[in-house]
Design goal:
The protein is built from 23 helices and no strands. By secondary structure, the chain is mostly helical. Among the domains are: about 140 residues, no CATH class; about 80 residues, no CATH class.
């Protein structure tokens, strides 16, 4: 069971379940699905689900769940899912959507719409998602709308999918795919830019394979893209297939085009290419290529190329060569997380080089840390090397150690 669902189930819902009395009038000691109600409550609160493993709703009334508490059907949908009883889990979600009050009704409706999408019963997903949206809270609205966009997309209601996607306050890579493909099918001008955005900005994933397969299935779609752009599309597809060398060639073809530097922005393409060089076991060649890119790129892409150059040089064990590009990133990048990554690589390289002033060098880097916890692992694994090798003097050791400690305590 996913951690989020498990936490929600065990901490919040069962507290309510335990507190509620039996709600059916005159229920007395009547059993629920052949189980004593108090015993069932105790088992559920303790995470003991074995007593439910034989429940069969073809012979037992699922609505008996409501005798436990108003939230019980939603809670039990997760329990049955953990028991691999998908039919019972679905039945509980449907019951919660139909009969539970707020706030459990909305939560059940969102889970149910998502479940219908997974089951490819998109008409049901659309109906439930629209039902949730009719009275959604601000917390549930975006989740319900996302489920609606997905169902409309797979139903090929492209106009509806695009209309609802525009209302989302938060998006994700798959929503970008839905928008791009729906725009292509509808013959809309934004399709070209939406597809490029997916291939330029998102980390390599099966989404790229899905879109590329769709494009090559209809030649008129591929004709919307220039030759360098087709190199990008094909290159990313090759990477998803583990064809690293072919993918590198495709991405380099795109990056050689005059338009490429202006399109990169803060996307993931440079990182995807850096990973490809590592997977292809060509880190030195990759670092050389990244360094040729640096002068051509501006903004975030400039620092991304520098980071990848340093990372690849480190992977090629050229630790000294990695320091200069990484130091530039650590000192100048506008992104705190990227600065921390660069400093992590720098510290690792300094240890590998066995720098004579290692404690001081580490302390100098520590002053610039944004998130000290990010560096705990490398310090824990490497600090023993300093102690074992007696790599300090009393004065220098105090100064270096105190700077590092101050950064960690921040």
């Amino acid at each position: 069971m996913p951690a989020r669902v498990s936490s929600y189930l065990r901490i919040e819902l069962f507290l309510v379940l335990i507190a509620f009395p039996l709600v059916a009038a005159g229920c007395g000691p009547r059993q629920i699905w052949g189980i004593d109600p108090d015993t069932l409550k105790d088992d559920l609160a303790a995470g003991r689900y074995a007593s439910l493993s034989t429940v069969d709703f073809s012979h037992q009334d699922p609505r008996d769940a409501l005798r436990l508490s108003p939230d019980a059907p939603l809670s039990l949908s997760f329990v049955f899912a953990s028991l691999n009883n998908d039919a019972a889990s679905l039945r509980m979600l449907e019951l919660a959507w139909d009969a539970s009050p707020a706030p459990w009704k909305e939560e059940a409706g969102i889970f149910l719409a998502e479940r219908y999408n997974r089951d490819k019963t998109y008409d049901k997903a659309i109906a439930v998602a629209r039902g949730v949206l009719a009275g959604a809270t601000p917390q549930g609205e975006d989740r319900a709308r996302r489920a609606l966009v997905e169902a409309l997309y797979w139903s090929k209601d492209d106009a509806g999918a695009l209309r609802e996607a525009e209302k989302l306050t938060q998006s994700d890579a798959e929503i970008l795919l839905f928008r791009g493909v729906s725009s292509l099918r509808a013959g809309l001008a934004p399709a070209h830019d939406l597809v490029l955005q997916l291939f330029l900005q998102e980390k390599m994933s099966p989404l790229h394979s899905r879109v590329y397969t769709f494009l090559v299935g209809e030649p008129t779609y591929m004709q919307l893209f220039s030759a360098p752009e087709q190199g990008l599309l094909g290159g990313m597809f090759a990477l998803t297939q583990g064809q690293w060398t072919k993918g590198i060639v495709g991405l380099e073809t795109f990056l050689a085009s005059p338009a490429a530097p202006g399109l990169l922005g803060s996307g993931a393409l440079i990182a995807n290419l850096g990973n490809a060089f590592i997977y292809a076991a060509e880190p030195a060649q990759g670092a050389k290529y990244m360094l040729t890119l640096v002068p051509r790129l501006a903004g975030q892409a400039h620092y991304d190329a520098l980071e990848q150059a340093g990372r690849l040089l480190r992977r090629a064990k050229d630790y000294r060569g990695s320091l200069a590009p990484l130091q530039t990133v650590a000192d100048e990048s506008p992104q705190p997380a990227q600065r921390d990554r660069a400093r992590w690589y720098i510290i690792d390289a300094l240890f590998a080089l066995k720098a004579p002033d290692l404690p001081e060098a580490v302390a100098r880097e520590a002053v610039g840390w944004n998130d000290p916890s990010y560096f705990v692992d490398i310090l824990q694994s490497r600090i023993a090397e300093l102690a074992a090798g007696r790599r300090w003097t009393p004065a220098r050791g105090r100064r270096g150690s105190s700077a590092v400690c101050r950064a960690i305590r921040r």
